[in-house]
Amino acid sequence: MGKMIAVIARVRARAGMAKAFEEMVTGVAGTVEAAEPGNVFYRAFRTPDPQVFVAIEVYADKAAHDVHTGSDHRARAAARVVTLLDGPIEAERLEQVW
């Protein structure tokens, strides 16, 4: 197995869309966990600002992350999420050191 890959993403929901974002990301998380055996962790957290969320995703290795990024469910979620956000997704991809 290769080094784990993590993605940390920060988003701001449009005014009045925080609940819709939560519902959408909860559905995506369930699909990821069921359909992607290489996914280790996939959760979203609300920050003290109720419109801002941080998602943390961890994959067993680069191949598992590639499966996620190429999946149909990710493409559908990406198309939907842009309608819910106020501004761009700020994401950082990290590679395991130890």
Please characterize this protein's 3D structure.
This protein has 98 residues and is an alpha+beta fold. The protein has a single domain, classed as 2-Layer Sandwich (Alpha-Beta Plaits). Helix content is 37%, strand content 31%. It has three helices and four strands, in the order βαββααβ. The chain has a four-stranded antiparallel beta sheet. Strand 2 and strand 3 (52-59) form a beta hairpin. Helix 1 (18-35) runs antiparallel to helix 3 (72-81). The longest helix is centred in the N-terminal third of the chain and has 18 residues, at 18-35. The protein starts with a strand and ends with a strand. The model has no long low-confidence stretch (mean pLDDT 96).
Brief account:
With 98 residues, the chain is an alpha+beta fold. The protein contains three helices and four strands; from the N terminus they run βαββααβ. The mean pLDDT is 96.
What is the CATH class? Alpha Beta
Task: Decide which structural class fits the backbone.
Answer: alpha+beta
What integer value in Å does the Rg equal? 13 Å
Would you count the extended β strands for me?
4
Form type: globular
CATH architecture: 2-Layer Sandwich
Oligomeric state of shown chains: single chain
Biggest beta-sheet profile: 4 strands, antiparallel
Q: Per DSSP, what share of the residues sits in E-state strands of 2 or more residues? A: 25-35%
How are the strands of the biggest sheet laid out side by side? 2-3-1-4
How far apart lie the N and C ends? 13 Å
Give the SSE order as H and E letters. Answer: EHEEHHE
